[in-house]
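Priority: medium. Attachment 1 of 2:
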């Protein structure tokens, strides 16, 4: 089967075609597109971005993300973990909020600083 997709590794956005049986890729301008296409049909991953609740801060939520891509099928479960967070200000930029979330290699980290109110 051939799957068509857009490579999201850079703004060029190459339209690529991946043969899911032979694991060959066409339409990629560079090798990253080949790696992306094969990963998408074998083990798709994404970096998750979201926000988490902060108590006693100058703002009520802080932006967060996983510090590396996680398996797509784990996205909802990791979101649930992030939604459970009740952080106390201050929160530092880059602070690890959930180490090795759900036993994955990825940590959930803050992508913004939140000072105490
Ligand atoms: S294949 Fe290479 S050039 Fe094309 S979008 Fe992906 S990373 Fe960018």
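Attachment 2 of 2:
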């Amino acid at each position: 089967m051939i799957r068509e997709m857009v490579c999201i590794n850079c703004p060029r956005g190459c339209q690529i075609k991946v043969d899911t049986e032979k694991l060959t890729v066409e339409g990629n301008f560079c090798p990253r597109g080949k790696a992306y296409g094969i990963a998408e049909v074998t083990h798709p991953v994404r970096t998750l971005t979201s926000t988490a609740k902060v108590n006693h801060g100058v703002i009520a939520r802080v932006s967060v993300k996983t510090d590396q891509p996680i398996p797509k099928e784990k996205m909802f479960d990791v979101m649930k973990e992030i939604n459970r967070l009740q952080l106390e200000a201050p929160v530092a930029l880059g602070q690890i909020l959930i180490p090795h979330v759900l036993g994955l290699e990825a940590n959930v980290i803050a992508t913004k600083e939140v000072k105490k109110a």
